[in-house]
Write a structure and sequence with these properties.
The complex is a heterodimer of chains A (about 110) and B (about 120).
Chain A (H helix, E strand, L loop, with lengths): L3 E2 L4 E5 L4 E7 L4 E9 L6 E7 L4 E4 L2 E6 L4 E6 L8 E9 L7 E2 L3 E6 L1
Parallel strand pairs in A: 2-11
Antiparallel strand pairs in A: 1-3, 3-8, 4-5, 4-9, 6-7, 7-8, 9-10, 9-11
Chain B lengths: L3 E3 L3 E4 L5 E7 L5 E8 L3 E8 L6 E2 L6 E7 L2 E6 L8 E8 L10 E2 L3 E5 L1
Parallel strand pairs in B: 2-11
Antiparallel strand pairs in B: 1-3, 3-8, 4-5, 4-9, 5-6, 7-8, 9-10, 9-11
The chains are: A mainly beta (about 110), B mainly beta (about 120).
Amino acid sequence: DQQVKQNSPSLSVQEGRISILNCDYTNSMFDYFLWYKKYPAEGPTFLISISSIKDKNEDGRFTVFLNKSAKHLSLHIVPSQPGDSAVYFCAASGGGSQGNLIFGKGTKLSVKP
Amino acid sequence: DVKVTQSSRYLVKRTGEKVFLECVQDMDHENMFWYRQDPGLGLRLIYFSYDVKMKEKGDIPEGYSVSREKKERFSLILESASTNQTSMYLCASSLVSDSPYNEQFFGPGTRLTVL
């Protein structure tokens, strides 16, 4: 059973607009969440994270929001740029995951010029 | 600068061959991981290791084994490669095993094709 779900396999956005990538989780004991970005033929790179004691974390154009009651997090990219086109993975840890990261299946973001 | 390297970027092997994928990290991390990435399936954990000579099965260990003789090196072994093992293989490492704040650093990946 999937503990971390990214229900949108793909998302297409116009350059300059906001991209919103969503992630849901089922394990209420997860206490740390991460977003990774992956280009084709490269390994994932860490983008931004958030602890469960916060509800928002911002880094430049990237903001992650956490809604613990809904077990939902989202990544906002503003403004979106063509170089943001990649697959984005949501990941969670804590709650019996043995320190491992539990990954979602990813969302492919395409930013059109 | 943190670095995880993998021995090959692209590899083509025949069915039944024994395949070794090597991963080296220079960050003195205790934890190392092997994943495979397939379209629509995300990152699936094959094996992981918390220390030298230690290994733990992940979600999809069947058909794979691992070896960790040195802290910096974690090898993935396909004992008898099959076509369904054609995939992107990703190695990762992280610093501590008992903290939830454990960002993993990934290597560039090995695209393995089994014919």
